[in-house]
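Narrative of accomplishments. A recurring question from our advisory board has been how the design workflow behaves on a single, concrete structure rather than in aggregate. To address it, we present the structure tokens for one chain from the evaluation set, followed by the sequence designed for it. No filtering or post-editing was applied between the two.
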């Protein structure tokens, strides 16, 4: 069998397995045969999905037909597939995953993501939502940006802080390059939720509060994230050199974990360890070093 035949056979087998496991009472249907309460008939799924019994039978048999996305969505809904199962059906047929509406309010950060952030200490690490709200962070990140815990939740957004917080701006020697790179990364991710209220509110507020943002946003730069070197000029620790990396948890795909790993040979790890421990600086002013 070629690749297309394999996918059609798998799709048919998957739909048949889910149909045969469906609980009839959940659909308001009576038992069939000898009191069988589990399993829908093909004609029942076909009727609910608005297709002919013959066509649905061919779909389960893996015949060479081309189901539309609309029909596959209807079948998935009527078989009451979970979101991952729905996406699996679409993927087998060559379609992109179904768009998901973001939940209202802040997106929750699972405990295991927070545990991972703590495990990365003293390297600064934090988790951002689909609109780059900062939902969790570790001690390293709070040492890098001590004000993060006191920023109002509504303003605790990576883009907003980068454009409007004087402390953050003062730590970035390449501020202009950094913010444009951030915007290009964000815009590449924002296409799938450009109509969502949280995104629209973020952009509207930033355009109002930052002329720099408005000018940069109107340039419409788009670029996928790539790991890169980052430098911060910390008011206590001095120059800190990192490699920036980004991870997406497979079981929390709307979250991105951003980690700043100390650059080898830069002394940054040692300075971050002392910052996290709260050790005082040896002296104040330019060129400041920790004891």
């Amino acid at each position: 069998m070629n690749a297309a035949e394999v996918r059609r056979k798998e799709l048919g087998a998957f739909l048949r397995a889910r149909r045969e496991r469906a609980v009839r009472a959940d659909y308001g249907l009576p038992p069939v045969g000898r009191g069988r309460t589990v399993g829908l008939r093909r004609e029942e799924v076909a009727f609910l999905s608005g297709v002919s019994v013959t066509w649905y039978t061919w779909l389960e048999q893996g015949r060479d037909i081309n189901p539309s996305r609309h029909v596959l969505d209807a079948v998935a809904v009527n078989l009451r597939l979970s979101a991952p199962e729905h996406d699996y059906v679409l993927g087998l047929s060559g379609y992109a995953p179904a768009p998901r509406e973001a939940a209202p309010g802040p997106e929750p950060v699972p405990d295991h993501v927070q545990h991972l952030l703590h495990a990365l200490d003293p390297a600064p690490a934090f988790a951002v939502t689909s609109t780059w709200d900062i939902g969790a962070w570790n001690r390293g990140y709070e040492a890098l940006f001590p004000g993060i815990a006191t920023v109002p939740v509504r303003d605790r957004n990576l883009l907003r802080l980068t454009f409007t917080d004087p402390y953050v701006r003062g730590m970035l020697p390449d501020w202009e390059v950094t913010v444009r790179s951030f915007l290009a990364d964000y815009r590449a991710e924002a296409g799938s939720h450009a109509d969502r209220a949280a995104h629209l509110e973020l952009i509207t507020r930033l355009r109002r509060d930052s002329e720099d943002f408005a000018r940069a946003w109107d340039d419409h730069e788009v670029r996928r994230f790539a790991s890169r070197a980052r430098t911060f000029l910390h008011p206590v620790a001095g120059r800190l050199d990192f490699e920036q990396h980004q991870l997406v948890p497979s079981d929390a795909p709307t979250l991105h974990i951003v980690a700043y790993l100390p650059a080898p040979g830069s002394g940054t790890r040692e300075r971050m360890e002392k910052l996290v421990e709260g050790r005082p600086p040896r002296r104040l002013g330019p060129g400041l070093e920790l004891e």
